[in-house]
């Protein structure tokens, strides 16, 4: 049956609580679609008498009859039809409010300290990751700092920074998300005779002194960058130690040694007295986001890891 055998003829008077609940408004919308208490109750996973009581309470709170009930039919009253658009708008506004509240409830606050070595902060994928992070968590205070050859690992291990954009390898205990791979090039003085050659090999560079890093820097990391030992087993001859990119480039320009850098150095570090040359058998390097294994699930660290995975999952624009 569609309704109840009694039809109320007395005016509706407001009850002690005059504001309807959003739940009651949702019930009315379903009833307006079904025009049948039984079907509406089934859709709402409630009993027919419970639905009828809720609609009656809604009418009492609004002080207006919304539904005409007979033994066979359910119809909206003229007032019910007139109020229906406002009911829909109210329910939609509450849905929007809930979505906004949920979004802000997931928004992080606090600070995320990010370190970067060399030009990693300026790389396209780094900028995309930071844009994604700020879009998702606008209230997160993101601080970026430039780190030198010693600091980029030490600052992460000591907790000075939470994550680092760097170039592996890294010591055990550090997690990595690889972001991009690119060739490495030789960086040598423009006055070096080999600078006249467009393409070199490791063997051609074997007699050259390679710039070193301070003792506090990771030896495994710098041996990778120096390709030490070389493929034939020869140990690299190291020269003066440099702590950062500007010191390294200055030493190269003075002919104190050579080094290997990511190919992006051509764009980010053009300097007078410096030449960059391809090396046919020089293995590539990777860019990565790094964090301490024990901190991977901290909210801010997890947020930037998620932002990085989101960026990596999106195809690069062509």
TrEMBL record:
Residue ranges of every copy of the HTH lysR-type domain listed in the record: 20-77
CDD domains attached to this UniProt entry: PBP2_LTTR_aromatics_like
Coiled-coil region list: none
Pfam family, one: LysR_substrate
InterPro entries for this protein: LysR_HTH_N, LysR_subst-bd, WH-like_DNA-bd_sf, WH_DNA-bd_sf
Keywords: DNA-binding, Transcription, Transcription regulation
Bias type Polar residues, positions: 7-20
Statement: the UniProt record of this protein carries the keyword Ribonucleoprotein: no
SUPFAM superfamilies registered for this protein in UniProt: Periplasmic binding protein-like II (SSF53850), Winged helix' DNA-binding domain (SSF46785)
Record-stated family: Belongs to the LysR transcriptional regulatory family.
The protein's name: LysR family transcriptional regulator
């Amino acid at each position: 049956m569609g309704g109840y055998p009694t039809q109320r003829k007395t005016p509706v008077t407001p009850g002690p609580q005059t504001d309807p609940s959003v739940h009651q408004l949702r019930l009315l919308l379903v009833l307006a679609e079904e025009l049948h208490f039984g079907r509406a109750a089934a859709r709402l996973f409630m009993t027919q008498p419970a639905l009828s009581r809720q609609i009656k309470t809604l009418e009492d709170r609004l002080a207006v009859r919304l539904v005409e009930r007979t033994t066979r039919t359910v119809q909206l009253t003229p007032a019910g039809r007139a109020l229906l658009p406002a009911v829909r708008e109210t329910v939609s506004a509450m849905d929007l409010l809930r979505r906004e509240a949920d979004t802000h409830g997931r928004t992080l606050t606090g600070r995320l300290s990010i370190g970067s070595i060399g030009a990693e902060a300026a790389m396209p994928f780094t900028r995309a990751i930071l844009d994604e992070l700020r879009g998702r968590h606008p209230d997160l205070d993101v601080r970026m700092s430039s780190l030198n050859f010693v600091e980029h690992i030490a600052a992460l291990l000591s907790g000075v920074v939470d994550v680092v954009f760097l170039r592996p390898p890294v010591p055990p205990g550090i997690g990595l998300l690889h972001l991009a791979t690119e060739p490495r090039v030789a960086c040598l003085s423009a006055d070096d005779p080999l600078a006249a050659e467009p393409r070199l090999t490791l063997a051609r560079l074997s007699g050259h002194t390679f710039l070193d890093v301070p003792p506090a820097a990771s030896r495994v990391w710098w041996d990778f960058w120096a390709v030490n030992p070389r493929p034939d087993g020869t140990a690299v001859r190291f020269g003066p130690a440099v702590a950062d990119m500007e010191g390294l480039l200055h030493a190269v320009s003075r002919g104190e040694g050579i080094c290997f850098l990511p190919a992006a150095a051509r764009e980010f570090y053009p300097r007078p007295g410096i030449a960059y040359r391809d090396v046919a058998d020089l293995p590539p390097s990777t860019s990565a986001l790094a964090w301490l294994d024990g901190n991977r699930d901290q909210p801010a660290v997890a947020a930037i890891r998620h932002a990085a995975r989101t960026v990596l999952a999106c195809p690069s624009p062509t």
